[in-house]
Design a protein that fits this description.
The chain is an all-alpha fold and 309 residues long. The protein contains 15 helices and two strands. Helix 1 crosses helix 13, helix 6 packs antiparallel against helix 7 and helix 8 crosses helix 9. The termini are far apart.
């Protein structure tokens, strides 16, 4: 197996963080969002409800009241959140069925035992060896830092790059403690320094930091104002249409730019509308093109209708 490694020198800043503010300030100064606070609030009030969550890997977090368990479950669920949603749910459920009391399970189970327990696990690119390495690394990080949140906290900065550097340290530590792996393992944990959008990691932070009817929360290290919008092709397309980015690819810089433009609309909680927006096109009764058309035509009016005829 071809092995790759991340930079594990925690003293170095991530390349993206060094230029982030300059890039974002230039980009946002040239963009005028075509959606208003009132329109987004209407969408949020209508669709940011638990009844609209299924099917979504977020639903697994609702089964765990203890934040120690929830942070483990959330990282497992977000790491496997690629591909068909129904296959994602099946894969996550398979893992969780084998790890009662998740935080205790990952901290007390040996790597050899994990490999045996998950020997028959297979989900797209990932195998039982990959999920075993992930769980072992998570368990070792919890034993070392006390929790995943505390590990994340050890890497955050005081500026707008807080979550980028924190996620970088969290990934570094899990990789280091797991003993590393091949490309399949690293596919589970993208790294900010590689400039991908890190959609699943930012989704994980949204679940763990925000608290409302949909996001259960559990972490208090950073506020919602520091989060980045999780970007995939679907969200990228909608945000481009709404004038929230002019960039051509769904990478981390695009996530930063989109977040900055949402922050101009809602400084305290720029990720607030992520769940409601991503329901567009996912649920049969919600049509993204209708929402976009209504927003563009109605300007600041509170008239965003999102259902199909």
């Amino acid at each position: 197996m071809e092995r790759i490694s991340y930079n594990l020198d925690h003293r170095e800043e991530y390349p993206l963080c060094k230029t982030k503010n300059k890039t974002v300030n230039k980009a946002t100064s040239e963009i005028t969002p075509k959606v208003t606070f009132e329109q987004l609030e209407t969408l949020y009030r209508t669709y940011n409800k638990r009844e609209y969550v299924h099917p979504d890997p977020l639903e697994f977090l609702y089964n765990y009241e203890n934040p120690s368990d929830r942070e483990v479950v959330g990282l497992v669920a977000s790491s496997l959140a690629y591909g068909s949603v129904w296959q994602i749910l099946k894969a996550v459920q398979t893992v969780l069925d084998r790890m009662p009391e998740p935080a205790e399970f990952v901290t007390r189970t040996s790597k050899s035992r994990l490999i045996k327990i998950f020997s028959d696990f297979k989900y797209r690119f990932n195998t039982g060896e990959d999920i075993s390495a992930l769980l072992y690394g998570i368990g070792r990080v919890i034993r070392k830092h006390g929790s995943l949140e505390k590990c994340f906290k050890s890497g955050i900065t005081s500026g707008d790059d807080a979550v980028i550097s924190g996620l970088g340290i969290l990934v570094d530590e899990i990789v280091l403690e797991s003993g590393g792996g091949d490309k399949r393992f690293y596919q589970l944990l993208p790294h900010p320094s590689r400039k991908s959008a890190c959609k699943r990691l930012n989704l994980y932070l949204r679940w763990m930091v925000r608290r409302d009817d949909v996001d259960p929360g559990g972490w208090y290290t950073v506020g919602s104002d520091k989060l980045l919008v999780p970007i995939d092709v679907h969200m990228f397309r909608i945000c481009r249409a709404l004038g929230l980015t002019a960039r051509g690819s769904a990478d981390l810089r695009t996530s930063i730019e989109i977040t900055e433009n949402f922050r101009r609309i809602n400084p305290a909680d720029p990720v607030k509308y992520d769940f409601a927006i991503t329901r567009l096109g996912i649920r049969d009764e919600l049509e993204p093109d209708v929402f976009i058309k209504e927003c563009l035509e109605n300007g600041g009016e509170d008239k965003c209708k999102n259902t199909k005829d």
